[in-house]
Design brief:
The protein has 22 helices and 27 strands. It is α+β, with helices and mostly antiparallel strands and 810 residues long. The protein has a 5-stranded antiparallel β-sheet with strand order 7-6-14-13-12, sandwiched between helices. Strands 21-27-26-23-24 form a 5-stranded mixed β-sheet, with no helix packed on it. Helix 5 crosses helix 7 and helix 13 runs antiparallel to helix 21. The longest helix is centred in the N-terminal third of the chain and has 19 residues. The protein is elongated, with a radius of gyration of 40 Å.
Length: 810
């Protein structure tokens, strides 16, 4: 109890003393001023874009047009720290922001000499002066003292030193040691020698007289003088000092790094307040890709093709490892600053793999399902193949590998355009989101807008089993603890590594399932085939053909050439064309874009050790089954040579093949019978091809012989038809359309149809009145009057179909 009472008495005496009261009052005044007048650390740094290994790709001027590059804490080496502290502030670690002994000494010298010979400024005070430049007066010195105390209270010594090194001047518009290191020595601070570090520590005191690159001899003398001081203070060993004193000075003004210009500009715009943006680019892959694209563009310039763009993605991490927006960024005449990776272009046939994947998942087709590659009218839309040839019945895998247009349009019509549009919207195709209400069947042939980035992301999804993820352009830094600061302070400079916590650059791990792993595997298996027309002419016998799955595309008018390929490691997207939109006859995905694609794979990932795609793990639905090669359906009664084909169990359509049908004929096979007129004896059951009307019309137009059903028994008087059978398909004119005619000289309008192979005669009706009879393949012409018109076509089996049109005067 006595000790406690004694302590209380001592405390009361201390509190009553003037010294304690003065200290408390000073502290209260300081923190009040600190609260109402916080120190603002808002430094506009130059934006630096780095590669995945930390090397600098591109730098930009700050908002105030200075080269002021942000140096991270780990770039301040012990050698740099020791040299700068010895020269500028030996007691930096110990004083509270100002050195009272140095200030008293400087004041005495100034009074004795009658002029200012020493300022006694610490690094902290110099930092304040760099942040808030003022006239050199005693009043300014008091404000600097207050601001220095604020810095010491709110930030650590390392953070203050870091800020100082980021702001020290080097003449002109160069500020900060990192800027000087890169622009005068061409290397980051961590790679500087002692001689180079010493050089950079002496320049800020005399930036106008000690100009690097112009007065190097004077700088060497001053450098060696300070190195001698380091030796005397035993700051470094004698051998290190000797090497530094004999080292030549090769400093000169260099250009700032300007690699990967398109991505660098993009990342700067997306992260405007981040001084260092750590991109995912592989510097070797980026440099190699830029060189290949530039050389390839030089070769094809003779064909009036001036631009190319390439995007390379790591399939496992979805990180972009190379990004080339154009062949030559500096080519203003050809639009080199346009970013071809993000430009909206027509995809040509490059969307077909996704369509076939959706068709696999819908159960509509399997790889060997037969599709008709023949002229078809889709409600007035009559697509043509790239080579203007037709192949008749083809398998789905042949149609995809050969990029046939008509089977693709037929598949899209069966699946439904909204289904494909919805999938592409889900995949993030921005232009398609805007065009959604206007898109029709032509979109699968290029009638929509896409970007190379979107297409490459889509194919990377195919390479990952149909799972789509966002592409990653930057590495998000792990969140670092924020330093203590007061209201209004901005302390982003003091973070060990800038945090990309918000904005477009942040990595998102959201996965979107576009198609099943089974469908993706079937698409990949098909796109791996090399016996196809989009193999470049000069690669068909090459030993350096990379093992990849790829698809080409050529837009209407030959304005865009695409080739996008992938293996297990990379997805590479290539676009070639002109940013002006000028078409070129020689431009094609196969012969213009694919050679560059192959070169990229051969250089970046030739003989990839990652292996090839295997059957998806856990994909028990993917199986093999016997099918009829004539249709791809399960073998039926007349299928004699079945083959195997992939199918997705529980999904793929299961129906028996009906490529042939049973018909009763007479013994000679010249007359066919229906169930009502078949005689009790003498009839023979035979099988005949069950061809669709469009195939019949195709065979007849090409004079391809086929086995036709004999004419029906003329003695049969029964009018018949089946609900399962449709009448002739009217392919001209188009149902629901309006036609304009010149009333003075009305043009003739054409009628044509497609009928089954058992039809010999068709009957045309105009407004329910018989107009004429003709063969199914015969074109009929008539002149119409203005008004609504009903057109009917009936075959000799009693089956019919109708359309309605409206005829108007011009």
């Amino acid at each position: 109890m006595l000790i406690i009472e004694k302590g209380k008495r001592i405390g009361q005496r201390l509190w009553k003393s003037h010294l304690v009261k003065t200290i408390v009052a000073v502290l209260l005044i300081f923190f009040s001023l600190d609260f109402f007048f916080p120190i603002l650390i808002s430094v506009p740094y130059s934006t630096i874009i780095t590669a995945r290994d930390g090397s600098i790709l591109h730098t930009f001027l700050s908002r105030d047009d200075k080269w002021r590059m942000y140096a991270e804490l780990n770039e301040i080496t012990p050698t740099l720290r020791d040299a700068i502290l010895f020269k500028e502030d030996k007691y930096f670690r110990y004083h509270p922001g100002f050195n009272p002994i140095a200030m008293l000494r400087a004041a005495a010298r100034n009074l004795l000499t009658g002029r200012r010979t020493s300022g006694a400024s610490t690094i902290t005070m110099q930092t304040v002066r760099l942040l808030e430049p003022r006239e050199r007066t005693y009043g300014s010195k008091l404000i600097e003292l207050f601001r220095a105390l604020q810095l010491e209270v709110h930030y650590s010594k390392d953070e203050i030193l870091q800020l100082y090194l980021n702001l020290i001047p080097y003449g002109g518009n160069i500020e900060g040691l990192k800027s000087a290191s890169l622009l005068y020595f061409g290397k980051p601070p961590v790679l500087l020698s002692l001689a180079e570090l010493t050089t950079l520590t002496i320049i800020p005191n005399r930036p106008s007289s000690l100009r690097l690159g112009t007065r190097n001899t004077l700088i060497i003398q001053e450098r060696n003088r300070w190195l001698a001081r380091f030796r005397k203070a035993k700051l470094f060993n004698d051998e290190t000092i000797d090497d530094a004193q004999t080292e030549p000075l090769t400093a000169y003004r260099r250009e700032a790094p300007q690699l990967a210009p398109h991505l660098s500009r993009r990342l700067r715009a997306e992260n405007p307040n981040t001084p260092i943006v750590h991109s995912t680019l592989n510097p070797t892959a980026q440099a190699t890709t830029e060189q290949l694209v530039r050389h390839y563009a030089d070769r094809i310039r003779a064909y009036n093709i001036h631009n190319s763009a390439v995007l390379i993605v790591d399939n496992q991490s979805r990180e972009v490892v190379a990004y080339v927006g154009s062949a030559d960024f500096g080519n203003v005449f050809d639009g080199g600053q346009v970013d071809g990776v993000r430009s909206v272009r027509s995809p040509g046939s490059a969307l077909k793999p996704l369509l076939y994947g959706l068709a696999f998942d819908a159960g509509i087709i399997t790889p060997k399902t037969k599709l008709a590659d023949v002229p078809i009218n889709f409600g007035g839309y009559e697509p043509d193949n790239y080579d203007r040839r037709f192949n008749g019945p083809v398998t789905a895998e042949f149609a995809l590998a050969n990029s046939l247009n008509i089977p693709a349009v037929a598949l899209l019509k069966e699946i439904g355009t909204p289904s494909l549009v919805s999938t592409l919207q889900k995949a993030g195709f921005s232009a398609i989101k805007k065009q959604a209400k206007e898109l029709g069947l032509s979109m699968i042939l290029g009638g929509c807008g896409v970007t190379l980035e979107e297409m490459t992301r889509l194919y990377a999804g195919l390479a990952n089993g149909g799972a789509l993820e966002e592409l990653h352009f930057i590495f998000p830094s792990p969140p670092a603890p924020l330093p203590k600061r007061e209201r209004g302070a901005v302390a982003s400079f003091s973070l060990p590594s800038p945090v990309l916590g918000e904005g477009p650059g942040v990595r998102e791990m959201r996965e979107i399932r576009l198609i099943s792993p089974e469908a993706a595997y079937l698409v990949t298996h098909t796109l791996t085939q090399i016996t196809r027309p989009d193999l470049p002419n000069n690669f068909d016998n090459s030993y350096h053909l990379p093992r990849i799955a790829w698809k080409t595309g050529t837009s209407y008018g030959r304005r865009d050439a695409w080739s996008i390929g992938y293996n297990q490691r990379y997805t590479v997207g290539v676009w070639v064309g002109n940013f002006s939109g000028v078409g070129v006859p020689e431009l094609s995905g196969a012969n213009t874009a694919t050679p560059l694609l192959f070169q990229l794979f051969n250089v970046l990932d030739y003989n990839s050790p990652t292996g090839w795609f295997k059957t998806p793990k856990g994909a028990t639905k993917l199986s093999m089954r016997l099918i009829c090669p004539e249709t791809g359906d399960v073998p039926g009664e007349f299928c004699q040579n079945p083959v195997t084909d992939y199918c997705i169990m529980g999904v793929s359509r299961y129906r028996h093949c009906q490529h042939r049908k049973a018909i009763f004929t007479n013994a000679a096979g010249t007359i066919s019978y229906c169930a009502q007129c078949r005689p009790d004896s003498g009839s023979v059951r035979k099988s005949y091809p069950n061809l669709s009307p469009e195939l019949v019309a195709f065979y007849q137009s090409r004079h391809i012989p086929f086995e036709a059903v004999p004419p029906h028994n003329p003695a049969c008087e029964r009018v018949f038809g089946s609900a399962e059978q449709t009448g002739p398909q009217i392919i001209s004119l188009t149902n629901g359309s309006e036609y304009f005619i010149n009333p003075k000289q009305p043009a003739e309008m054409e009628l044509s149809c497609q009928a089954a192979n058992d039809v010999q005669t068709v009957f045309w009706y105009l407004n329910d009145k018989l107009y004429c009879r003709a063969k199914p393949t015969e074109a009929i012409f008539f002149k119409s009057r203005p008004g609504a018109l009903k057109i009917s076509c009936a075959d000799d089996k009693g089956r019919s179909s109708d359309i309605r049109i409206l005829v108007r005067n011009e």
